[in-house]
Amino acid sequence: MTNRIGILGGTFDPIHIGHLVMASYAIDALDLDSVWFMPAQSPPHKTQEITATEHRVEMCRRAVALDSRFVFSDLDLGKSGPSYTAELLERIHRLLPEAELVFLLGADSLKGLPNWRQPEKIIALAQIGCAERPGTTVDEQVRSTVPGLAERLLEFDSPLIELSSTEIRTRRANSLSITYLVPESVEDYIVENGLYRPGS
Question: In the CATH hierarchy, which top-level class contains the domain 4-161?
Answer without folding.
Answer: alpha beta
